[in-house]
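Board notes (copied after class):
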Amino acid sequence: MKNRKKMNKTTKSNLITYLMVIVIYAVVQGMILTGNLSSLMQGLLVPICAYVILAVSLNLTVGILGELSLGHAGFMCVGAFSSAFFSKCMVDVIPIAGLRFFLALLLGTAMAGLFGVLIGIPVLRLNGDYLAIVTLAFGEIIKNVVNILFIGKDSNGFHFSTKDSLSLGLEKDGTILINGPQGITGTPKDSTFTIGVVLILITLFVVLNLIHSRSGRAIMAIRDNRIAAESIGIDVTKYKLMAFSVSAALAGAAGVIYAHNLATLTAQPKNFGYNMSIMILVFVVLGGIGNVRGSIIAAIVLTLLPELLRGLQDYRMLIYAIVLIAMMLFNWSPKAIEWREKVVAKIRPAKKKEQKEVA
């Protein structure tokens, strides 16, 4: 009976999370149809979906596995550039936009997941600050490699260079696919808000089912006490690598929808560098480490807030900072946690009384 009640509680919690995303989608679509959403806000919808996926996926590493990773932007970069490169090459070969985007999504997700495995095998032997430093270095390396990469295509095939576009030696019919720091231009803009929401729901399905599975319980056991987990036969390397690679693959999927929403994709510090990794970590921390629903809300609020405060040009960053501090205090202050527990304790008896009266 206890297990059945626990399962029912878990299922209800998951359904509430899915329902929250669907309700937000319905409200936003209604605002678009009635003309109540500005073009600026509409332009932010796909990036918000990407940030939500990144926040939820990083929560799998930071909140559930308990390891601090600062290389999430690197996995996003891998997914973004591999999928954009594929889409640009296949524009004429695969004219059906939906099929081409689906294949690009699979490729970007798989490439990011592969990098997650390759990086995770040596890196996950480290813990704490050491792991954070190495993953941060990975993200910076990926960004810098993309910035020195020049790839072109002509009748003779593909040409690669790390010097400049002239050294590719393209013929007259040749086109430059990746132009170093100038990135990729002309990627088909196949991403939509609907596709972004579908990917959020898929991400939630993967992450929530993993958390509440046998593997998820093993991962959380490793987080709580690695030595105790090893002593009862849990394969620590296997489960840590599983969580890390799934998180990386989902970050790659976020990179795919991010890349297919831009006319020009470049590997700059603001979108694939250290700043992006820190911003994703802020979403996770302020939403509550291990709290998937909180990560979604934090990603949406903290992305929209600077734009909503644009009218208060002189004070918007001050208000933004105050909101950040207030959210952190609300989530992590002992007094705030104590107050929330008291409120929950008062609400639960009231609900039980109502249920008894109805019965």
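Comment from the instructor: Residues 46-290 form one domain. The chain has 14 helices and five strands.
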